[in-house]
Specification:
The complex is a heterodimer of chains A (277) and B (379). Chain A is an all-alpha fold and 277 residues long. Chain A has one domain (2-261). Chain A has 9 helices and no strands. The radius of gyration of chain A is 19 Å and the shape is globular. In chain B, the strands form 3 sheets. A 5-stranded mixed β-sheet of chain B has the order 3-9-8-5-6, with no helix packed on it. The chains are: A mainly alpha (277), B alpha+beta (379). Chain B: Residues 34-116 form the EfeO-type cupredoxin-like domain.
Chain lengths: 277, 379
């Protein structure tokens, strides 16, 4: 029961974190009009995941193992691009705010609805299919034991609660701190998503070296412990990463942190590190 | 995203076929559309990983992994050098998840990873052959083995009885040969679908004069039947009798060595009923001896034997179908039983049109559920 709960929590957190920061940011910067687009992206992702999951569970339709891995990998890499873009978008907004340049704020926030929809969509779709398949498997097994189904459901609900809690607390703190902390959080999340995408590419056989481990701390951080589940759900920190995963993670994290934390000059607008726009 | 949509539409397109994998079709030429092999059960817990099969046929294999332990587990199929061929994660305690793997022939290892760490509990997995056969599932394999035992028992007696029949013909004992004719054919008719796999031997043994093509030599049971009942002279039938027993011996050897698939059984059960409907009810099979009901009974018994071999599989996959089959078999047997006479049957020309119609109805009612077996087996 607890094991299923943790899995639901982990899968859920991977989606709710990005969504809750996105919502908090929009609310905080008076762009509530964009919220429907967030929910549209989330809704479409959930609906598609459930539809594909049902299709693969109840019909003869097949998705080869590599297919699912590739889908998750591509969605993850795209999510990294969008989240990175969001981080620097927020940074620009923070500049405008801290410089009391209210006029500039709305300009900095001129963001396409499309980008918001896609970001919310990717955050959820990334893990949506796997979670949907899990749900259907649990529902099918509910005739024998209903525990997995209840566990996974509670786990996902908890992740939504945590996301909501994050949103509430993020709303309360002052703007500058909000941007700094959520920005840092998102950078760690994005690094984790990239690491996850690399792992999936290795599993799909696109990249080699799946079993060349950088280290193994499964003794200290069991994957099936609550803290293991939380760490992997939020930051994708896993006890047994491959070398390629760690290299990708560090190669993303270090320059992004540097760019994000460097002192801001008030004259020039920093060029975003990513080419997502 | 586009990738995912492509993949899914690809899967949908495949779903349009009967039962779909993405590989070769099974052996019998009579069936259409590819079929997926059965699922291989994997019983995993915190310390064990029991894979139901250690050898599967190349192609698409579906594993159904049930976690009976207390830790979350994962299931992997590794190629040499721990290259992941397929894996499924997040198998929480109490859950069954499926993994579809496309495996070319070779030596692999399966692994369960309770607690999602370490090298896992390994088992060797051998993948053989070019085509995927339907025998991946242990129950299906047992069904084929059980039917093969039936074929063996029938062919043993077929040899003995055909030899007696041939001896009687060669000795000129017409009455004895007439009595042995339907008896020896009984064993033949029960397993005829297996014989039909070997194309040209079937007509050589069981060809009817009416079905002869221009320039074909007519041999087999029915030629001797005509000598016995019409010419009432078997003085020249010796060579024909020798050829018959030789052909029967050849086919018995081939039938017992044949690689059968579950689909052969399913399709064979259906073919036998079609035989009844087209040949025996009409009286065209034994047009001179009128012993069609012996063949009728034998076809029905052979069909039932094939279905019974598949029974464990059918009970698991289509319990309702099993119930229907039992009812319709009983009805067909009852309809036939009316015509029992001594230790044999009434002759075809002793039956009224109404009686023949009731037999025909019973067979048709049975044919419908029997035609549903193949799709179930091919699932």
């Amino acid at each position: 029961m607890f094991a299923s709960y943790l899995i639901g929590l982990r899968e859920g957190l991977e989606a709710t974190l990005v969504v809750s920061v996105l919502v908090a940011f929009l609310v905080k910067s008076d762009r509530k009009d964009k919220l429907p687009q967030v929910w549209a992206g989330v809704g479409v992702a959930v609906a598609l995941s459930v539809a594909f999951g049902a299709l693969l569970t109840f019909t003869a339709a097949r998705l080869e193992y590599t297919g699912q891995e590739l889908f998750e990998a591509i969605a993850s890499l795209l999510a990294v691009v969008f989240v990175t873009w969001m981080i620097f978008w927020m940074r620009r907004a923070a500049r405008a705010l801290s410089g009391e340049l209210r006029g500039k704020l709305s300009e900095a926030l001129q963001v396409g609805s499309f980008a918001v929809v896609v970001m919310a969509f990717l955050a959820v779709a990334r893990e949506g299919l796997e979670t949907a398949l899990l749900f259907f498997a649990a529902a099918q097994g509910a005739t024998t034991t209903v525990e997995p189904l209840i566990g996974i459901t509670l786990g996902v609900l908890t992740s939504v609660l945590i996301g909501w809690g994050l949103y509430r607390s993020a709303i309360k703190i002052n703007l500058t701190r909000f941007f700094t902390w959520t920005g840092l959080l998102l950078i760690l999340v994005a690094a984790g998503i990239l690491k996850y995408g690399v792992h999936d590419l290795q599993e799909a056989g696109v990249l080699p070296g799946l079993t060349t481990y950088a280290f193994d701390i499964s003794g200290v951080l069991p994957a099936d412990s609550w803290y293991g589940a939380l760490l992997s759900g939020i930051f994708n920190i896993t006890p047994q990463p491959s070398v390629a995963e760690v290299v990708a993670w560090a190669a993303y994290l270090v320059p992004t942190l540097f760019l994000f934390l460097r002192p801001q000059r008030s004259k020039t607008t920093p060029a975003p590190a990513s080419s997502a726009a | 995203m586009r990738t995912a949509i492509h993949l899914t539409f690809g899967a949908l397109a495949l779903a349009g076929l009967t039962a779909c994998g993405s590989g070769a079709a099974p052996a019998p030429a009579s069936s259409s559309g590819p079929a997926a092999p059965g699922k291989i059960a994997v019983a995993a817990n915190d310390t064990e990983c029991k894979v139901a099969a250690s050898e599967v046929a190349a192609g698409t294999t579906t594993f159904a992994i049930t976690n009976g332990g207390s830790k979350v587990t994962e299931f992997y199929v590794y190629a040499p050098g721990d290259r992941v061929m397929a894996e499924v994660e997040n198998i929480v305690p109490g859950l069954t998840r499926e993994l579809i793997a496309e495996l070319p022939a070779g030596a692999y290892e399966t692994a369960c990873k309770p607690g999602m760490v370490g090298k896992g509990i390994r088992n060797p997995l051998k993948v053989t052959g070019e085509h995927k056969k339907l025998t991946a599932d242990a129950k299906l394999a047992e069904a084929v083995a059980s039917y093969k035992r039936y074929v063996k028992s029938q062919t043993d007696t077929l040899l003995v009885k055909t030899q007696e029949f041939v001896d009687a013909v060669k000795a000129g004992k017409i009455e004895e040969a007439k009595a042995l004719y339907p008896v020896s054919r009984t064993y033949w008719e029960r397993i005829e679908p297996v014989a039909e796999i070997f194309g040209d031997l079937d007509p050589a043994i069981d060809g009817r004069e009416a079905d002869l093509a221009e320039g074909d030599e007519w041999t087999g049971f029915h030629k001797i039947e005509k000598d016995l009942w019409i010419h009432k002279d078997v003085s020249k039938s010796g060579p024909m009798a020798d050829k018959l027993i030789a052909d029967v011996k050849t086919i018995v050897d081939k039938a017992n060595a044949a690689e059968l698939t579950p689909l052969h059984l399913a399709n064979g059960a259906k073919e036998l009923l079609d035989e009844v409907a087209t040949g025996k009810i009409t009286g065209e099979e034994d047009i001179w001896s009128h012993t069609d009901l012996w063949d009728f009974a034998a076809n029905l018994q052979g069909s039932k034997a094939a279905v019974q071999s598949l029974r464990p599989v059918l009970e698991e996959r289509a319990p309702d179908l099993v119930k229907t089959l039992d009812e319709k078999f009983a009805a067909a047997e009852a309809a036939l039983e009316v015509h029992r006479k001594g230790d044999g049957w009434q002759l075809h020309n002793e039956l009224s049109k109404a009686e023949l119609k009731s037999l025909s109805d019973a067979i048709n009612a049975l044919g419908e559920p029997i035609s549903k077996i193949a799709p179930v087996v091919a699932k």
